[in-house]
Amino acid sequence: AGHTAEALNACWIDIWYDLVQRSHWSTDLAAVLSEEFSFGQPPSPEPDMSWWVKGPIKELLRNAGSKRDGLLLRLATLLGTPIDHALSSKLYCSRQDLAQLVADGIEVGGHGWKHRSLATINDDEQQKEISESRNLLDTIKAPEPRSFCYPNGSCNDGVETQVATGGFSTAFTVEPGFIEPGCNPYRLPRFMVHNRPADDPEWCAAFHQSTKELL
């Protein structure tokens, strides 16, 4: 994606997560945000971290479009925590780092340019997201064939066509499952491992269900 260490701004979701991490979030603060943005009451007695990172504020930001930057500034003010404008250099690989990964034999694929949900934007915006992602892979000399991963798993037939004609040979969704003969190469499933223990219930349930379907 375009969010490398050289980028002027970090991805909106990373800015939000950083604000949450550096602020002293509390029930009172959650109530202020809920009233400000008409969310209704936050979880009681204490909103856990999932409310902050996966709840209504994330959805508000996801759907904010051109108003997102102003919304992030407003949230930063309400949290009493300034936006870190050097966040990109702290979080992301540089283009040189990515080129070194490729040179070391690590596959680097496409993931859009600004991590936008592709099925929610128009054809021209989709094309820009995909072509700029491909151009970055050209810059770091990523070999072909190349794979793509849909941001947030957001895809439809039109997005699939754009990815296929945009220089990618395969693409991954966020649906859990095994890749089997006959799978659509532009709707491939995957298991999202994250930083979870081997006996994580959600991971085990998805794995066992996919194994049952395979057998």
Could you give the topology of this structure?
Elements: H1 12-22, H2 27-36, H3 49-54, H4 56-62, H5 68-79, H6 87-91, H7 95-103, H8 123-139, E1 147-149, H9 157-165, E2 170-172, H10 201-214
Parallel strand pairs: 1-2
Helix pairs in contact: 1-5, 8-9
CATH class descriptor name of the largest domain:
Alpha Beta
Structural class: mainly alpha
Q: Which second-level CATH architecture of the largest domain applies? A: Alpha-Beta Barrel
The structural domain count equals: 2
Describe the structure.
- The protein is built from 10 helices and 2 strands, in the order H-H-H-H-H-H-H-H-E-H-E-H.
- It is mainly α.
- It has 2 domains: 12-87; 93-214, TIM Barrel (Alpha-Beta Barrel).
- Strands 1-2 form a two-stranded parallel ribbon.
- Helix 8 (123-139) runs parallel beside helix 9.
- The chain is globular.
- The model has no long low-confidence stretch (mean pLDDT 87).
